[in-house]
Every structure is written in structure tokens, then in C-alpha cells.
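Batch manifest, entry 17 of 40.
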Amino acid sequence: MTASPPSDPRIIGDTVLIVDDTPDSLRFLTDTLEASGLTVLVATTGEGALDLLAHIEPNLILMDAVMPGMGGFEATRAIKANPAWAHIPVIFMTGLTESEHVVHGFDAGGADYVRKPIDVDELLARVRVHINHARARQASEAGLDATGRLLAAVDTRGALLWCTPLARQLILRHAPGWAESSGTLPPPFRALAARLTAAGAPLGTPARMDMGEGLSIELVLIARYRDHECLLRLNEINPAADIARLQERHGLTLREAEVLLWISYGKPNRVISEILAISPRTVNKHLEQIFEKLGVETRAAAAAVAVRTGSHYG
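Output type: C-alpha cells
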């Protein structure tokens, strides 16, 4: 290994899990990362890493590709299949002659790799970048989640780029075997997304599938980025059940509950007035009453309350 002295003291207060079965590697990596202000956790097997994750969550995982028992690829697949751990970036460590491990590592859900013998400066730079990216992404998702947004970003080839926790929960309810680490939406959602990401689909275009018993799933195209990335809003639409729940929980009239429901689905006043056969001015009047009863001041805040009133959100 290239044992040059650590040169970046700015990595402070974060935790890295090292998964490696070689004592010399563990000692070198532990000393290097701790000297840079990181807290280090150690596991010598893939099974040990999963056991440790059940008790404490690191900010990043350094994973040896090949170990006895559960190897690094299998352990990473297990990590990425668990929604509680899937956001943790995994950096693979692989030998210079093991280029096939790089491909396997990315396929398993790895975020990056470093080659052995390890260059300290490169290692610390990659660790810092991935910890910061993961933290920024979690903050963004949490912010969107707090507003009750069920959002997913996909590219025009159907790859899933990211989704908010509430969107993840919705998908898992209807596709229990799905793993976000697969990098794609499950088949029913993928078919809806394909209709929206097709060239020429205007913003606001919905695509819906009937799930039976009054329930349907709707995806709405709300933004395009860089010509090949699309932002979708997911709605789980069950008007009768949702309206009754909103009335009971918040003391709303039937019409107020109907307006709030469609607000939570992201529909503008114009569309709501058409759905309910009332004027846009009447929609605004109902909104004023809704804001007062919920103790909120904006549509977004009212929508967040409505989404979280649903039985799946507490």
C-alpha cells in the first residue's frame, strides 16, 4: 500500500465501516481514516457487516471485493436491498489486476471503487465526496418528504435515478419484492413511466392504472431535465376512502375534503373546479376554510397534511 501521510484533515465527525478480512489492510485503513477525524467501524466478513448495520448506521462503507463466506458483492446487494441501508454509499476496494471486480461492484450497487495498493490522498478525497453527496441527497429527500411529496426521477431509458421515501413506500406496497438498488421501477410503474418519458409528452401529463376496489396509481410528469431526465409525481388515488378519512381526522365538510384531496394529488384549482363542477373562486373559498381548520398557510403545507393523514403514513 502507498502509505503517504493523510493530507486532508477536513473529514470530521463521520463514521466509516471498513469490511475487510486482512489484518494489515484493516490496520492501515483504520489508522488512515482515524487520523483524518473519522470514526471507524470494522467487520471482517459480509455477515459481520450486516449484523453491525442492524445496530449502527455509518455514513459510508469501504468494502473489500473478495472475502471468505459472504463476499463484498453479495453483502452490498443485501445492503442495497434493505430500504434502511440503501442510501449508504459503498466504495469497493479491489486489486489492480481485478478489473472485473469493478464491473461486479457497480452491478451490486457500489458507488465507487479504489484500487490496491491504496493511495491515501485519493481514498480520502473519494470518501469525502461520497459522504457529502449522500448527506446532500438525504437532506433533499427529507425536505421533499416533509412536504408530502411522492417524487421519483427517471431517465428516458427507464432507469430510476432517485425517489423520496414516501414514493418508495408507495411502490413497495404494490411491488413488495422490489429493491431500489435494482436501478429501475417495477414493471407496472415502469410501463406508466415509459408513457410519460416518451418524446413530446407535455408537462402535467398523467398516466394511470386501475388497481381494483376503487384504487388507482397515477404518475404525473412534472419536469424534464437535460433532455433525458424526467421528474414524476406518484399518486395513490382512492377518493372515497381518502375523503372519509380527511373528514374524520380534520373536521372538514365533504366538499372541503374533496378539494383537499385533489390538492394533495397536485391538481391546480382549474382542474379541481372541473372535477368537482364548481367555480375556481369556490375552490379558493374552500381552501381558505381548509387552511384555517388545518392551521396552515400554503397549499404545499395543506397537501403535506393530507398525504400524511393517509393510513399508510400515520
